[in-house]
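User: structure tokens for this one?
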Amino acid sequence: MTDRDQVERGHRAALLAFLPRARRVEAHSLAQDRAALVALAQMTMQVVIDPARETQTVVQELPPEEVVESAAARLRPLILDEDPTHWGKFFKAVGFFLHAGQVPPSAMEHLKGLKAEWVAIKPRSEVLRGYEVHLSKAGSNESQRVTDNVLGFAWLYGDVVHSDADRLARTRSFGVAERFRAAAPLVAHIMVLTIATLNFARTLYANGWLPVEDEVFETPVVVSDTTFRHEGRIYLGEPHIGDDPVVVPPPGQDLGEGWLPIQQVFGPGSDGAAPGGTAQSETSAPT
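Assistant:
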């Protein structure tokens, strides 16, 4: 294998790592209403004005924390430098194959634009994404201020997927509710960007510019039906005595004496008394 073959193999592995993970993000319940997801990412808020009291109330409706937390768990590897699914490895791989395929300049520009948006996600930065929060004590001129980026990543790395003591200490005065308020739009933004990147990859693949198989876009990546049914035959036998493992014939062979089909033990007309506590089953693969 030549050096170029090894490089190409590594880049292809990056594609195969990123794409299924991105599809899991796309399949999350939070992403099913795309308009709502975009609105969440854009920090949409409502201002309620009370003319009589001359007050204004800013209302920001967010999804339940558990929903955002599960979404954050799905996308977390995409922003983890050491993970094979990291967005940077994916973009490096795509760039390699697009240059080799001599694609139109428009595709390269789209790639650069998407990459720039990923680069703007800075977990360690104090950049202001949308707002900052000031906290002051009554009777004191001193105050604390923190940006939503710091709060959001403190929730992600401190409250959810890790327990980053430094991030939690930095934001402790603001509390978990304020951290979550900043994190929900952040998570939604990364989800929107992930889905946009996935759709771009689909377009590249459709044009023959990504060396992956259909399965990477078609193989199920989430469990949608959580009721499992395995059709087969179950037999009951006498309780096993001793330390030796239970020895039963391979499926399809006669079990011998002492084994009864479960319907003879618990079915109509039976006395309901099991002959023992050992079971043997023959099952077929679920359809």
